[in-house]
Specification:
Immunoglobulin-like, alpha+beta, five-stranded antiparallel sheet, 44 strands, six-stranded antiparallel sheet, single chain, about 625 residues
Length: about 625
């Protein structure tokens, strides 16, 4: 009965639900349909709220924008600070996460390998780290750039026990240094290699023996590990700027003379030799080895006049010789390929006088015996530019008159090469009658080696009635000459000048003794920065090196029989002994002269000529 009653009550409630819901919906509809006035109020309130929200958003984003603007304005400080923060975070990463960092981060890792017994660095060791390979240098060191994190390192060299190990490539570069000690499996042989001319140890010489390479240290020393199966081993020695050489190494762990070797700097010296019975042009290495004939003599060469002059850089040679036709000629030899070019050919009536090299231009005179004294062109000053192959007529003598007794003519005094300038004097001479010197002047001349910019530095009027008048020159410094001008009468003293740096200056302190003094020939180095000369002391030669003006001199030899011959680069000087032996020595005097070769030199000396080599 109770259950029936409850069911009836539930049915009544269920039937009443639609009516209740309907009433609630009607009530809700009435509440959501505001009046027109209420609608306007609510819309205005919504707009005001939206405006407030918009201003709040603007203020919020404006603040963020200002923050970024301020950050960027102070980027000089904020960016490094940010970087430091990032680095600090990265450095705090545990080692277990290095593998992840290694995917995009690398660091340099340096390894130094030394011999376990001698503690000497080992060059030529192969290092493999993180699939990167490097070879240790003469200091036993190599650096590889590899991913950070734990890596495998393999170290190997022939006749050493190979090793492998694990290393940690750190983010902190100062931590990426490692020294490895290798154990030799053969005999440790000490070797020394020096410059043959200076005697100084040579670093970084590559020594190849039995399939393994080693390099000398800064003192020219190295330890080579070799098997004990033989008492000697063949090796090859190589260093840039030096001639390669072979060596026989004695297998011993003692320091012995047999294992001290030398290398000779790269270069060739050219000279004359009549060893064959003819006068040949020969070249050798700087130590006299590898002798070769560049230009064989013909048998027509004149022993008294055949000359060979080298330019300061040894790129070109000028040869004066009688060859195939028996007539004198001047020949150019280009040392880059030893090709020979005929510069100028003489004849039975033409002869040559060599002046010398001005850089790459060769200067000489041609005398024509078939041209009479009253005719022009009896003597011609010429030059040849070696790189371009151009020949220049610089100047020639003048003549006037009608016969051997009626003539006036000019001549050239000695032509001297200064700093890219030729200096000489044009003097006048006259026959007996009439006197052709009246109204004439002697002229101090200057001209470029190619014949350009020729000018009279100063004219010196010849006194009336003079039949002979000669202005003379004397080179007393590397790039300067004294000028001696005769007085107006035979009893009047000479006037003296100095010509240097394109300026002529009268010198009252210069006397006849000063002018006539026998000055040394100052040989100028290829760089123009040094000079080389000798002075007689106790009947022996003292050798000196100085700066471009022969100042700040340094004596490099005393009581010597050697005579300055030339330079080879600015590092070495050449000297001759007895006019037939050629030696080379360090320019700083640090080593003794070593003999290069015997050679042939005619009894010709180009005194005062310092612009090339072989003439003194």
């Amino acid at each position: 009965m109770a259950d029936t009653k409850d069911a009836e009550e539930d049915k009544k409630l269920t039937d009443a639900e639609p009516e209740v819901v309907k009433a609630e919906q009607e009530s809700a509809q009435e509440s959501t349909e505001p009046s027109e006035a209420k609608s306007k109020v609510d819309t205005k309130a919504w707009e005001e709220n939206a405006k407030v929200a918009e201003e709040a958003n603007k203020e919020k984003f404006g603040h963020i924008k200002n923050v970024f603007r301020g950050y960027w304005r102070k980027k000089k400080w904020t960016l490094p600070l940010t970087l430091l923060v990032i680095i600090a975070v990265v450095l705090g990463v545990p080692a277990s996460r290095y593998k992840v960092l290694g995917l995009f981060l690398k660091q340099s890792f340096s390894i130094n390998v030394v011999d376990k017994t001698t503690s000497k660095p080992i060059s030529g060791v192969t290092l493999v780290l993180a699939d990167k390979t490097a070879i240790t240098n003469a200091a036993g060191t190599a650096t590889l750039r590899v991913p950070v994190g734990p890596q495998k390192l393999a170290v190997s060299k022939k006749y050493y026990k190979a090793t492998t190990s694990k290393v940690m490539v750190s983010l902190i570069g100062s931590n990426n240094l490692l020294q490895i000690h290798l154990v030799a499996t053969g005999r440790q042989v000490p070797v020394t290699i020096a410059d043959k001319i200076t005697g100084k140890g040579l670093p970084n010489v590559a020594i190849a023996v039995l399939g393994t390479d080693t390099k000398t240290d800064k003192d020219g020393k190295a330890i080579i590990v070799l098997p004990t199966t033989a008492t000697t081993q063949k090796a090859n020695l190589q260093l840039a700027g030096y001639n390669a050489a072979s060596a026989t190494i004695t297998v011993t762990d003692q320091v012995v003379t047999d294992n001290k070797f030398t290398l000779t700097p790269v270069g060739k010296l050219y000279f004359l030799s009549n060893l064959s019975g003819k006068i040949d042009v020969i070249k050798t290495n700087l130590d006299g080895t590898n002798r070769q004939t560049v230009l064989a003599g013909t048998g027509n060469e004149d022993p008294a006049s055949t000359s060979l002059l080298a330019s300061r850089d040894w790129k070109y040679l000028a040869l004066l010789a009688k060859r195939d036709n028996g007539q004198p000629g001047i020949y150019l030899i280009n040392t880059s390929d030893d090709t020979v070019t005929n510069i100028d050919s003489g004849s039975a009536t033409a002869s040559f006088t060599l002046v010398g090299w001005s850089n790459d231009t060769f200067v000489y005179e041609v005398s024509h015996s078939d041209i009479n004294s009253w005719q022009s062109g009896g003597l011609v000053l010429k030059s040849y530019d070696a790189p371009s192959g151009k020949l220049f007529n610089i100047d020639q003598t003048q003549g006037e008159g009608t016969s051997a007794s009626d003539y006036g003519s000019t001549s050239f005094s000695s032509v001297y090469i200064l700093d890219n300038e030729l200096v000489y004097v044009k003097n006048w001479y006259s026959g007996q009658f009439p006197n052709h010197l009246d109204g004439k002047s002697a002229s101090l001349m200057s001209v470029q080696p190619d014949g350009s910019n020729k000018k009279s530095i100063q004219d010196f009027p010849i006194p009336a009635g003079s039949q002979y008048y000669s202005v003379a020159l004397a080179p007393y410094e590397p790039h300067a000459v004294y000028v001696s001008v005769p007085g107006a009468t035979s009893d009047a003293p000479n006037t003296y000048y100095e010509y240097q740096d394109a300026k002529l200056t009268q010198q009252t302190t210069v006397t006849a003794d000063t002018f006539n003094k026998l000055y040394p020939t100052f040989l100028v180095s290829p760089s123009d920065k040094q000079t080389f000369w000798s002075d007689v002391r106790d009947n022996k030669n003292a050798l000196f090196i100085g700066d471009a003006d022969a100042n700040n001199q340094k004596q490099i030899a005393s009581l010597s029989d050697d005579t300055p011959y030339g330079w080879y680069t600015d590092n070495y000087v050449l000297v001759s002994k007895n006019g037939s032996e050629l030696f080379i020595m360090p320019a700083d005097g640090s080593g003794k002269a070593i003999k290069v070769t015997d050679y042939y030199k005619p009894q010709l000396t180009y005194r005062g000529y310092g612009g090339g080599y072989g003439g003194n």
